[in-house]
């Protein structure tokens, strides 16, 4: 009886909140991973330069190609059923399959996150295995989470509402980075390990709870079409458009266009998100490689250089390296300026030029949306009934 009231309250949460909370459980892990994994292996585990570059190169290949591969494997079970049965799976069945996959892979993502912070193999080997294992589960979670955005809702209004909550929870998840500064200590790593263990436990349990709630709501919608309606506030839109990660919404439009152009009976949501990641994910690998190289090139500071050790059996310690002359300070500031200002500006200009060629908007987008609504009307899962 004590658990009945909280569970009833959780069942009453809007679908947008439950779906958006999945972004929180991803974000609290991934932000810490991005900030600390290079520093951990370089400064704490003392990985060599060669092992670091080999690991990042293999990670670049794996990080690029596992997205379309996993996306194709995920959607194949939905698309391959059409020739045998003559009709595609219902959208409700697709949503339930993706929710079950999130319930399995989310806790495994949390476990793979923990593998970074305890040395259990030679640094180079652990670096390679941890990166590939973590990114594999992250890809599975990301693909199913993003594909749900295209499968749960068809209208741009509902998708924007769902994506807004994802952005809101992602922003909340970034607080884990601010909390991590209180525990990060290269000399004593035990407190940071305990912090990461807490994050992983919270994330894993959150995935289990959120997916259970989402699954029950979808199943209840199949039995009670009016249970309960999704509350949509018409006042999700200028503020929503300004704060959401809009690339996800653009990809959902591409999912609609692919379904219409190829006359599919079920959208290949995960496959399309995987193909987009094939282009965007390599940047995650190039960033630390390019950053460490540019820092060394412009400032002369090599992250892989270890401080000299004292001579074994010598009464006199190894002499301290001379202090850098004052003339190096402007060079360091100039190098940091290039990394923090010029590189982002260059990337932004390249993105603006690329997006200027994008044509799926305006009248063409309205036409695609209308045809998608007509094609999916008999089997769609209306988010307002979830």
From TrEMBL:
| Listed transmembrane segments | 17-38, 50-65, 117-141, 162-184, 190-214, 336-355
Source organism per entry reads: Rousettus aegyptiacus (Egyptian fruit bat)
Q: Which UniProt keywords apply?
A: Membrane, Transmembrane, Transmembrane helix
Protein name in UniProt: Major facilitator superfamily domain containing 13A
Instruction: Show the InterPro entries listed in the entry.
Output: TMEM180 (IPR040035)
**Any single Pfam family the record assigns to this protein:** MFS_2
| Superkingdom | Eukaryota
UniProt key word Transmembrane: yes
Keyword Chaperone part of the UniProt annotation: no
